[in-house]
Amino acid sequence: ARRDASKPRDFHVARPSRRAPRQGRRVEGRHAGTRRDFPSAQFSLHQLHSHTFPHLPQAAQLELVHEIEQLVRFAPADDVKAAQSALEKSLTTSLLQGPAEPLRHLISVCFCYIFARGARQTLYTTVGSLLSWLGPKNSPASTVAAKVAVAVVLGDLCRVHGQNMVQLTQDAIGVLIKLTRDSALPLRLAACGAVGAALDGSGGIDEKVQSELLKNLKAVLGERSVPREIKVACLRALPPFVRNAEGLWHGEVLDGATALCVKALDDVAPAVRAGAALALGDVLAAALAVPFARARANSTTPGKGPKGFNLKKVMSKGGSEAASAIDAVA
Predict the structure, then answer these.
(1) Following DSSP, what letter does each residue of 103-134 receive, concatenated?
(2) Is 271 helix (H, G, I), strand (E, B) or coil?
(3) For residue 3, is pLDDT > 60?
(4) Torsion sign over Cα 137, 138, 141, 145
(5) What's the CA gap between 131 and 284, in Å, rounded?
(6) Can you give the pLDDT at residue 39?
């Protein structure tokens, strides 16, 4: 039968699902209160604790870790805390095997949820271990794939829990900055993405870290032989860099970031040009979200300012001091 055209279509009414609910999962009251039973996830947890888990194919590991991800997201917090120690050990073992990207992502999500819903005491030792494993000596992450996985998890943990471990997050950013120029290209790619994630959880980076990061990103984008994927990843790190740079309107970060984007607009690779255009818009939007502060020059010499003071940044086109962030960005 045709629908009556006089009645408006209701886009908010969901069709009833014809799929039978999975055994072991029960949801009652989507909004009034959700209840879930997890015998299947508990079975997966038992498998994860067993010694056979590291020897499973990655497809089987992916399905198993997905069950664990559901457990740490929806199970009662007490259950998560009770299983936390064994979960951390097993997930770390899987991480050091150098899993592929889907499994790597799920492991990272599990770690973030474990420390959000479970105990947080082991967060600091876990992050400290991840930092040491990215070092060149005596690391259990003996392969490039394992170090890539460690870098990804480290960046995500800093993004989610950075405010609870400020100094460790700053240390992680320093380590990841160095890895952006590592000889292994997959590790460089992962480090660029992890730096952006860690920056968003840092709460702010000082001038020394700003200078080091800007120097490394400029060097990577200036390499002729570097793959376009790494250049795009570097460009994606610029907006969180600007968002979290302390004293943005008094330093060189905004000028440096926009200059890198503008230069990348002339790259021979279309993907890099597209990434540069997107990054440029995000950089300017990120700058406009930062409260504007007029520069306080304490030098009386015309055209000069104190060390670190960028006169061009705070001058409008007419030559007078910019009165707002929009004037400064323009």
Answers:
(1) HHHHHHHHHHHHHHHS-STTHHHHHHHHHHHT
(2) helix
(3) no
(4) positive
(5) 32
(6) 44
